[in-house]
Structure formats: C-alpha cells, structure tokens
Amino acid sequence: MASVLSKKVEKLVHALDILIVDDNQFMRKVVRNLLVNVGVRTIHEAADGLAGLEAIRTFVPDIVILDWEMPLLDGGEVARMIRSPGKFPVPDVPIIMLSGHVERWRIEKAQKLGVNEFLKKPVSGKALLDRMVAILANPRPMVQLGDYYGPQPRRPDYELLRRAAVQASRAPMAQVMGREH
To answer: The domain containing residue 123 runs over which residues?
Structure first.
C-alpha cells in the first residue's frame, strides 16, 4: 500500500508546476535544486514580488514558493495582492512562505494573509515535499471571512479569524460614531 501511495505522490509531484519568488538568486537555485531532487519537473522563477505576480498571471502555477524578505514588495504584500478575488486573476493559488525569520508575529501575519504553509530557511527537501503533499492531498477550501480570503483556517485559528471578521464588520460603524482609535 505504501508503494502505491508513494507512486501516486511521485506522479503528482512530477506533474507540478511550481513558481519560486525570491530576490536572492542563490536561494532560488537552492530551492530549485531541492524541488528537482524531490521530482518536480516544471519550475519557474521570479526575482522580485512584481515579477512574481506577473509570473503567476502568465504560468498559473500549482504552488507558489514565496520569500518573505524582498525589496519593493515583500512576501506579505505579494500574498495580500494574490489573495484579492476580483482584483487578482489567480487568488486561490497555494502559497508556501519561506523565511529565515520565524517570529510569532510573522507566522501569524502569514496566516492572516492566507498563506497555506510557512517554512523556516534553510529548508530541507523533505520539509518542502511534505508541505506540497499536504497542500495537494488535503486541500483546504478557500473561504472569505471578513477581510480574510484564503484557505480555511485549521480549527484553532478559525474562531480567531471569525471574531476578527466580526470586529472588522463593526469597525466602520465605530468610525462613523466617532470612536476611531
């Protein structure tokens, strides 16, 4: 059974179309090599956030691997722009955020921006493969909760986002009533 499952995973991975968005050429090369080593055959690269947005429009990849720290548009801003249904043509593309910075606020912000997975650099091929398989094998439906658009949060986060959506829906009334912060 395990070999049948691994054959299915192998077939899925071979068919993937991946986009790497990172301003660091060396990191793009490292991630590309990791992807090639786990069996990905179609890999595109973008050297900054603007080029990444254009590459998503052009190639419509199965997964975007997005660096957090980039000039001009950082990964958070790119994720926010992608997760804009009605404004961006491919708002549902799965996003794996990579960062050498793993402060709690950064991970929470990535979740609130609709990122599917978050990985710490340096990343291993196994960790990358595990996240890609998780996205493919257990895709979470895309949901709109207030200002949030992204994969349905895992249970503990769902209630937090629901409350944030309720607060956001009340915010305009508070502003009208003159109770701005």
So the answer is: 2-139
